[in-house]
Amino acid sequence: MSEREIPGHLIRPTDELSTAERRELIASMRPEDAEGVPELSQVDVPAELREQIETAMSRYPQLRSASIPALWAVQRHYGWCTPEGIRQAAAVMGVTPAFLESVASFYDMLYTRPVGRHRVLVCRNISCWMNGGDELLDSFCEAAGVDPAEAGHGGSSADGEFFVTGFECLGACDIAPMASIDERYYGPLTGEDALAAIEQLRSGAEVLSEKAIVKRPAAGGPEPEPDPRVATGEQEAR
Amino acid sequence: MAAETRLLFRHVDDPQLPNLEGYRRHGGYRALRRAFERLEPDELIETFEASGLRGRGGAGFSMGKKGSFLPHGEMEKYVTCNADESEPGAFKDRELMLKNPHQLVEGCAIAARAVGATYAFIFIRGEYWEIADVLERAVGEAYDAGLLGDNVLNSGRRVEIVVHRGAGAYICGEETALLDALEGKRGNPRLKPPFPAVQGLYGGPTLINNVETLSNLPHIVNNGAEWFKGFGTEQSPGTKVVSISGCVQRPGNYEIELGIPSREIIYGLAGGPPEGRRVKAWFPGGSSAPVLTEAELDLPYSFEALADAGSMLGSGSIIIADQTVPIPELALRTARFYHHESCGKCTPCREGTNWTVKVLERVCAGEATPMDLDIIAAVQENIIGHCLCVLGDSMAMPVGAMVRKFRDEFERRIAGTAPASAALERDQQIAGGEVIAA
To answer: Are the CB atoms for B246 and A127 separated by under 8 Å?
Structure first.
């Protein structure tokens, strides 16, 4: 018989349980596991959240397409995808909470547990790793007060201000090592930058203004002389 | 001296380019007018096919041919732009959307006209939040100017563009997983056939193309197929935005003509590895591409030449590892990514990526046996071709190539004679100036 102990749980195959144990297990399941689509009239949805979800629904030919936008709205409103928020979104969309939970749990950026207020995603993929991404993650953890042992999968600081996590490729290998801080990209970053960014977030100042990707000049080099073929084409277009 | 050939990146240094007015000043939206007023949908598809434009998302399939697979007739059809750029090493779409969002909006609208779609969706990865803001602003401007909406350019035709933000899953870049995600579900790939061109989004015929592919359309409509074929090679016409990163002095996006020697991109444009170091291994087309070695630097950078060399151009993302980078760790980093991103639907990928990571961790920790290398190879063989999508293959190919091409380094690591960590090896490198040959 295989048993695996994880804190607070004992996982065992259900066919090895006694009748009494099985009855206890069923009784322990949350009632909402069995519920259907919540009645909108019976769920108290904040007006702003409801409007955001309904706007998203109106943009698609089929309303279920709004599930990710709806979950984003829930996350913005509550800080994470709370069970109550998911229930509210489900009521507005006319789907089961379980359906929305299945979606929320699939995606890395939708949090199904509480996380710190400012989110720092540090890329650890190939190009960032070769340029010191692991060390950058450590620096952010230290500055924010997040346990580095947790940061591989995401950890929050004790004061609830910061969530720091290692992340798979963020699509900014040109500014390696880099991080996404509150949904904006910054790089290339040093350990000092990590410290400065956390301080700036604490004080509400602008974060690393010099390192924001939107301020980065385009592409590799300076604009070359236009290729005659490109220029000719442009001429003809006019 | 290598030079860029800027077509998609033309005027990219103009800070006004992301605005409608700036884009129009450089000839923007003329192609849209031409597509709606002077060309029939079939003519558009024929032009795209004749231009030889190949998909820029990875597979390199003829864009026009894909468009021609959509059935004619009175059913709802869709265009979907794949902007879920998540392949390690790829960051070209990010730059194209940030610097020239209207070029993509125009391309999407032209594609919608060509296949007879009302809705075009741009599926952008959730991590690109600020880029999606830029795109949404551009789409809003286009609506206000009558370039999108119920009555595009007073043609009586309707085109709607919706920017759809994902929420962090590499698998959604796979076209059928993207469709599931767009339908609001978990992003799991579907069985093919039916292909999306026949049965895609909401069960309707769907054209799915990458950002860069669609960004090419306005230029082809303006200048014609023959003009486009004047760039690049016969089998790989046009330009390509190449993302280059890793151990190079000037990482970034460079737009080149397909077919130039790879060395010119890596050394000429990106400056090569830091002073005194050499290229040890390089991914020519994102982390899914089997790695090549220093001896293969003179390969022409084209779909066909890289395929002949046993690798692929993929999304056009070059990652350089110089001799300070230990290959077993590189393999582990690569494998971890695919392990994390496997959606878990197909067993060979779900289990294969997991076991590859575990065995590579043993190798890197110096706890492996020589037999483990054969196990790694066997696991890769059992993934390739055995899943609904190619996510597992995308790990199996580069990891398999690393073990094959750098087997002696893996063996030395197992025997305990190769340095154990990247940091250690790098320190030794810097301290001793010694070159550890591949």
So the answer is: yes
Average pLDDT over residues B403-412: 94
Domains and CATH numbers, chain B: 20-229 (3.40.50.11540), 239-322 (3.10.20.600), 327-432 (1.20.1440.230)
**For residue B83, what pLDDT is reported?**
97
Instruction: Domains for chain A: give ranges and CATH numbers.
Output: 35-104 (no CATH), 118-215 (3.40.30.10)
Contact by Cβ (8 Å): A54, A92? yes
Cβ(B292)–Cβ(B285) below 8 Å: no
C-alpha B63/C-alpha B213 separation (Å) is 8
Work out the minimum CA distance from B406 to partner chain A, whole angstroms.
18
CB within 8 A of B169, min separation 6: which ones?
Answer: A106, A107, A108, B177, B181, B187, B341, B343
- Check if the beta carbon of residue B272 is closer than 8 Å to that of residue B279: yes
Q: How confident is the model at residue A217 (pLDDT cuts 50, 70, 90)?
A: confident
Contact present, B268 and B1 (Cβ < 8 Å): yes
Please judge whether B165 and A69 are an interchain contact, meaning their C-beta atoms are less than 8 angstroms apart.
yes
Chain B residue at shortest CA distance from A103: B186
For B44, the enclosing helix (H) or strand (E) is helix B41-51
Residue B337 has pLDDT above 90, yes or no: yes
Chain B residues with beta carbon closer than 8 angstroms to that of A235:
none
Interface size, chain A vs chain B, as Cβ–Cβ contacts under 8 Å: 209
Distance CA(B111)–CA(A224), nearest Å, equals 30
What pLDDT digit, counting tens, does each position of B170-199 carry?
Answer: 999 999 999 999 999 999 999 999 999 999
Residue B81 dihedral angles phi and psi, to the nearest 5°: -95, 125
The full DSSP string for B163-195 is EEE--S-GGGGSHHHHHHHHTTS------SSSP
pLDDT of residue A232: 62
The pLDDT tens digits for B302-330 are 999 999 999 999 999 999 999 999 999 99
Confirm if B178 and B187 have CB atoms less than 8 A apart.
Answer: yes
What predicted TM-score, i.e. pTM, was given to this entire model? 0.91
DSSP state of B300: B
| Cα–Cα distance measured from residue A49 to residue A173, given in angstroms and rounded to the nearest whole number | 35
Q: Where is B221: in which H helix or E strand?
A: helix B211-223
Helix (H, G, I), strand (E, B) or coil at B272: coil
Distance CA B50, CA B72 (A): 20
How many other C-beta atoms lie within 10 A of the C-beta of residue B36? 19
Provide the strand spans (E) within A9-85: 9-11
To the nearest whole Å, the CA of A135 is away from the closest chain B CA by 10
Please write the tens of the pLDDT for every residue from B49-58: 999 999 999 8
